[in-house]
Automatic annotation (TrEMBL), chains A, B:
Domain AMP-dependent synthetase/ligase residue range list: 19-399
UniProt-listed Pfam families: AMP-binding (PF00501), AMP-binding_C (PF13193)
Keywords recorded for this protein, A-Z: Ligase
PROSITE patterns xref list: AMP_BINDING (PS00455)
Protein name: Long-chain fatty acid--CoA ligase
Species, as recorded: Mycolicibacterium sphagni
NCBIfam families the UniProt entry points to: PRK06187.1
One MF annotation (Gene Ontology) recorded for this entry: ligase activity
InterPro entries in the record: AMP-bd_C (IPR025110), AMP-bd_C_sf (IPR045851), AMP-binding_CS (IPR020845), AMP-dep_synth/lig_dom (IPR000873), ANL_N_sf (IPR042099), ATP-dep_AMP-bd_enzyme (IPR050237)
Gene3D superfamilies reported in the protein's UniProt record: 3.30.300.30, N-terminal domain of ligase-like (3.40.50.12780)
Occurrences of domain AMP-binding enzyme C-terminal (ranges): 447-522
Keyword set includes Zinc: no
CDD domains assigned: ttLC_FACS_AlkK_like (cd12119)
Length: 542, 542
């Protein structure tokens, strides 16, 4: 028996329609550098979106053509976020931090037709633009010379000019909620990046989850501040969620240094912000050096992308009255999947332990861990296996990719290894490919890193598995010291000795100037292992 | 182009699965009278749901068979809420306050096979049970004699016994999200009640909306207290939403008098409660007479079903530190459609005015007003027309009913009349059928009633349109005075004179002992008009 409910598609267009009518007077603020800001209302953003859609149609964008962006978080990027999917086309947010050959590859595979690009990013885009075969037009945003882009032979137009020439009215078409709205590529360290195609429905549901009390509880009393890039996993869904909630939005554009971020928080007073730990670490250091700033407008800071140090969360809470909530997700999970917030019955002395986990799934996401053979392991807080997730905003395949190895009977294999406790809290101990297998048992590189980084002399630490005759693999600790700090391997090993089991303690230590990173800033453990194998590192054996 | 996202149906079963795994240790508490309570965990409720589903299968419930409930808000009702839809059957929550012939009609039209009924409701159920043709079995909940029910000739079983005999494991089937999950009948004052059939998808999305920051912001830090009956518009979605959030749940069973409610709030400390204004009015009076109680655990009280007096909201906020948020909806809208909360830029002196409106739609609900000819009117806060709504949890038809008059090109005609301002705030001034048309202009009976009730001598007031030779219709004010109060029609008219335009002021006044109500407690204006026409009322003409 069918229900009698209306058939109402969950689409980005529906979010836009709602935002500009009920919340038309809410504002979108973009940093312009030097402490300046420009403002627009939702209504104006909606009108600009109409003009952009008309301009794109005039440029030949039809059906599900792909329109790429190569942009910072700013008003024009938000306009593209709503206009492109709402007109039925597919928004491809190019990650400006990919390597040039990766950018070339993903634009080609996605068949991007048009790229909307910030002129401030010309130095990155221009060198690769001529090789982006399918792209016929660049729409340039902001001030600056068009010459370097025009040198590619592509048509280059100014965003302001082509939108000014169009009507704000656009006949947004009816759209099937399962059709593509946007796409984003993973930043795989091995092989080509893989495309994830978000649907209208998945974006809508993900936004609802971000707005939920167990998510960020966004409401129209909020002002959202997505620092996490809109080209990286949808800025954790904050742009669409803010529009859905009718929350004000403040956008940092390219001004993401600690001073600019603190200035924005003080003057624009956002209530909810999202950024990776590195940003908050910089902010913490900046506030340390420049006391007297007030960041207390923030009721919630969402933090993820890499493990969030408990010490960072503690400092924010105790010194500045700002709550950092750790979340976990991937490009493949839209990305918000879990949030680390303690259940009300959590004993006082366990609160920080819980907040240091990856958190537990919000409704809509289901999680389980499986062993090497694919058998499901219990949620007992002890069994360790690969994390698998499923749900309406989790990918079930990759774009134009028939590789089934990342999926298992409808579940996404995350490539993360960890455990789940009876309350659903997930503790990730490693990437599956980074796990150290020593004498048949697993050693978590991530846990060792987290403990090492708590040592006052250590700025960063990466632990990788290296070949060992007796134990197959043993951990190598690659450590970056704080400026001017001096500490011996023996002391660090001793520091770890009451924190992990004895056989986890590394014998191999190397002190390096910086940890090699991937294009998106994650530890590049493949390179660390390779440099070790090539004898680049000066290794101390204890 | 299709998205790559997983196909994951939004079902009640998915909410249940999530609740019992991630939040299995959360509790469901049911009042047992005399200040006592019984408790169960989500996990136990889930196990009971499995047993109930097995028992229902054994009783022959297959496919989309309808299983009715005739129950208060208690643990067993919650078990039926999750078990029946999750097994693919359809939950029909019978409204115990319908007239006997209405109960008979709706059970027949819905083809209810089994009724799960509280034995405390035997006095209402027994007289009508034998005439409920399609029902073959009653499952009796609680203590008490089965005799009166058995006298109907139906099979009568005890809930505890049949569930105890079954396994807690049940193979929940895969379910299409658009299939029926539950149904509920409107309590139409004219003609037969009409059935609304909720889908799995609509229930899921509605729950997400209740959990959203603009809804009730439910999280697992909450304890939800639905006083509004689970047989009435799904207790405003609180049961499913609480399970989705992992919030504790406290249920009043049949103990909804003010003393019991206050006792429950003080001892169980719920954070979010939902009930009609009458309940909160009783609570306010009880607290007035019995000072010293603490209800401050409530961070939010949702209130709707009829217009919420601003004076009530003020008292709760100023005297008890409890925020009442007005919501509006109908059985047809699942029911939550709008919430009255001021936008952050609302001037101080407008806050209470805004809180006195019906509020504005949450994302997912679209609202508009149309004139008599169906033309859409502007959201300018002035134009008055019939409210129409659409969205994924709003009905597009009635069960087994081909009458299209309640729908217009995909929108539900609510039968409510009012205006919408530029921020989307809806002010309902009347039911379309209660609007008074005087000299070609509309007079709002509801506004007159709201002003009258603010007079200290007035306990209740109903205003209806009665025939008038010169003006076609004029308002008649039917007033119930406070005990011992005495006031003249002249004084009341004078009291209104600076609150509404002059030509709205009623000339006809009658003082009555009580206002006739429908089966669900709404003013029965049809009866008031009929009694006036039959000269039952003693009318003063000014």
């Amino acid at each position: 028996m069918q229900c009698t409910m209306q058939s109402f598609p969950l689409t980005v267009a529906a979010i836009l329609r709602y935002a500009v009518t009920v919340h038309g007077d809410r504002t979108v603020t973009t940093a312009t550098g030097d402490g300046g800001y420009r403002h627009a209302t939702y209504r104006e953003v909606g009108q600009q979106a109409g003009r952009l859609a008309n301009a794109l149609r005039r440029l030949g964008v039809q059906g599900d053509d792909r329109v790429a962006t190569f942009m910072w978080n700013n008003q024009e990027h938000l306009e593209a976020y709503v206009a492109v999917p709402s007109m039925g086309a597919v928004l491809h947010t190019l990650n400006i931090r990919l390597f040039p050959e990766q950018i070339e590859f993903v634009a080609y595979e996605a068949e991007d037709q048009v790229v909307i690009a910030d002129l401030s990013l010309t130095p990155i885009l221009a060198p690769v633009l001529s090789r982006m075969e399918t792209v016929h037009t660049v729409i340039a945003v902001g001030a600056g010379d068009l010459g370097p882009l025009e040198a590619s032979g592509k048509r280059v137009l100014r965003y302001d000019e082509i939108t000014a020439a169009e009507s704000a009215e656009f006949e947004w078409p009816d759209i099937d909620e399962n059709s593509a709205a946007a796409m984003c590529y993973t930043s795989g360290t091995t092989g080509h990046p893989k495309g994830v195609v978000y649907g209208h429905r998945s974006s809508y549901l993900h936004s609802m989850a971000v707005c939920s009390g167990n998510g960020m509880g966004l409401s129209f009393s909020d002002k959202a501040f997505p620092i996490v890039p809109m080209f990286h996993a949808n800025a954790w869904g904050l742009p669409y969620a803010a529009l859905m909630a009718g929350a004000d939005i403040v956008l940092p554009d390219r001004y993401m240094d600690a001073e600019s971020v603190v200035n924005l928080i003080e003057t624009q007073r956002p209530t909810v912000a999202g950024a990776v730990p590195t940003i908050w670490n910089d902010v913490m250091n900046h506030l340390d050096r420049n006391p007297g700033h007030d960041i207390s407008s923030l009721r919630l800071v969402a933090c993820g992308g890499s493990a969030v140090p408990v010490s960072l969360m503690k400092t924010f809470e105790e010194k500045y009255g700002v709550q950092i909530r750790q979340l976990w997700g991937m490009t493949e999970t839209s990305p918000m999947a879990t949030l680390a917030w303690p259940a009300p019955n959590t004993p006082e002395d366990k609160v920080w332990e819980v907040r240091g986990t990856q958190g537990r799934p919000m409704c809509g996401v289901e999680a389980r861990i499986v062993d090497d053979g694919g058998a499901v392991l219990p949620n007992d807080g002890e069994a360790v296996g690969e994390l698998e997730v499923r749900g309406p905003w989790i990918t079930g395949s990759y774009y134009r990719n028939t590789d089934e190895s990342k999926f298992q009977s409808g579940w996404l294999r995350t490539g993360d290894v960890g455990r789940i406790d009876v309350q659903g809290y997930i503790t990730l101990t490693d990437r599956a490919k980074d796990v150290i297998k020593s004498g048949g048992e697993w050693i978590s590189s991530v846990e060792l890193e987290n403990h090492l980084i708590a040592h006052p002399a250590v700025r960063e630490a990466a632990v990788v598995g290296v070949p060992d005759e007796r134990w197959q693999e043993r951990p190598l600790a690659a450590v970056v010291l704080q400026e001017g700090a001096d500490v011996s391997p023996e002391e660090l090993r001793n520091f770890l000795s009451d924190k992990v089991v004895r056989w986890w303690l590394p014998e191999r230590w190397t002190f390096i100037d910086e940890i090699p990173r991937t294009s998106v800033g994650k530890y590049d453990k493949k390179t660390i292992r390779a440099r070790h194998a090539d004898d680049v590192y000066d290794v101390t054996h204890l």
